[in-house]
Specification:
The chain is mostly helical and 422 residues long. It has 19 helices and five strands. It has one domain.
Amino acid sequence: MLFESFADAQSTLFLAVFIVAFILGAVVNKTNFCTMGAVSDMVNMGDYSRFRSWLLAIAIAITGILVMEFMGLVNADNSYPPYRASQLIWAENILGGFLFGIGMTLASGCGNKTLIRIGGGNLKSTIVFIIIALIAYFMAVPLPGAGDQTLYSIIFYDWIRPLAISLETHQDLGSLINSDNSLVTRSIVGAVIVFLMLVYILRSKGFRNNNDHWLAGIVVGAAVLVFWYLSSSMMVDLVDEGEQYSLSEYYENWDMVSESEEGKPAQGAALSPQSFTFINPIGQTLGYISSGLQSSVLTAGIISVFGVILGSLFWALIGKTFRIEWFFNLKDFINHVIGAILMGFGGTLAMGCTLGQGITGLSTLALGSILAFVSIIFGSALTMKIQYYQMLYEEASFFAALITALVELRLLPASMRKLEAL
């Protein structure tokens, strides 16, 4: 899509992203698409229907990216966040994903679900949103009075970043297997993964007969693809120079192609190809508000946050499900606060949430995204098992509940079980 000015291209991107996010928010609210709920259904009821809906969204996203990259419409190698970066931050992906999985269980939902619940009238999720925003923001921005020190540099950098592995190529499966022909290799690997996913998804009669599961998986997967396409296709056509620039290229060459600093964004990274992810944009939202709503700070990620909330609100009002909710008791409040803290730290470390890494990141077939995805599910499942046994045995120790949970997840031998299921 060609535009005569940077401002026109950016405003069109913002409007289009808002529309897609609005639809996403409405559909997720309507269908009760929830990644934490999917894990809960698996762990507590043995029901994999919502998990299959999640996998359908992933399969659609992978397929779409493979096709669009083959056609030259998207270049996910230079994405924001850099999913395919040659530096594999495996420890951050695993630890961050694990913490996020625990956090979203305690806080009753992931980043996307937090926005959906806010739109539906849940004030608890507003508190969760504020805490995530504060942590995500100061994980990237220096703390007041701390010089150039961020939460990340103070708490994590010195011990976790040295564990990163520098690769000679991008970290997507195609490049890792065959860097000389990564595009074709990635297409083959992706096609096999998608085929296996679809076989698993369609085996379930319960899933096949549930329209909401179909609708959620298709819309969420398609929304991720549309955002990828929109953020990759906005081009500024400089007729006088006979050249065309993407938004990020225009930003990099601003002094040469623009007559003034007016309209220049505060950062260029957020202009790169991207799709839905919510932890970092929630932090960016705090920055946008604290800046006094300066237009230079506004990003597509921030637009998506507002779009999802308003889309959810729209469906809550149409479906008459809007309800003001508050904490049941002090324990409920504490759980949500702890969960929000863990999601803020974990989502930033893992470089995404259940949608940001679990769908958008996985669509790039990045190894780090796979590690984060598995770690999120494990963290959430383990937490749910521990909560279950602590509820059954009020006098049981946390250690006994933990060991029993690991046994049930088949990570320890059955002989080590401390508590019996009822």
